[in-house]
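hey m, so remember when u said the tokens were messed up on ur end? i reran from scratch. heres the input so u can diff it against urs
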Amino acid sequence: MNERLLTTPDGRNVLHMQRRLTHPPAKVWRALTEPEHLARWFPTEVRIEGDRVRFGFGPDGTVIAHDPPHLFAFTWGEDQLRWKLSPDTTGGTLLDFTHTFADRHGAASFASGWHTCFTALVRLLDGARPPAPGDTAALHEHYVAILGLSSGAVRGDTVRLERQLTRPAPEVWQALHGDQATIGTPPPAPFAASGVEAGPVIRVEPGKLLECAAGAGTVRWELAEGTGHGARLVVTHTGDPAALPAWRAHVEDLAAALAALARPGA
């Protein structure tokens, strides 16, 4: 496996994934382009009608490259998907896949989703049964780490962290004890990072937002719809740029705890 996240000159993001397959390019090509095979591994129904691609959900796409059995690419809304097949010396195929998109913080969701799809693709090529569902939350967190999506940023006196989570907003709010938040009192403990002053709550929108005072600035937690099945978390702390490491550790601890909740038996 070989996964990288790159940035284009115009600010879009390119997820690159590579797989070595034991089957020849012609067989892999059929699995990539024929609807009856796509139905076994692609994340939704696909119908290819000339240069138009219709999906089971989301906007239509357009075929932008079709060179059998070497290159196949099409758009899916604003995104672009590209498969390049190269024969290797063993009679198999080197598959190079790229997904170009705008939402950088959704990259781990995309990567874990395609990882699961490629596992199903291999099973299809091998003539085996589809794989059993795996620990998708752990896979997501694996890709957050290897794609470098947990760093956060400082601009002026403001710390900002954006993080895709593996659980929906109501469950995240519950894990944060958000229902215990009261304006004018300190926030529930899960909203406070170690070593960072937490003043009184000044605004609450249940399930969506909590803002509190913090020294000379404020801390704001926001939950919104994310990529995949989880919420998107944005934490913004004004007035203390040195707080970035504390917030990074705190958000990663929260993400790990939520991923553990997603596992069977947790």
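this time it looks ok to me. The mean pLDDT is 94. if urs says something different then somethings off w ur setup not the seq
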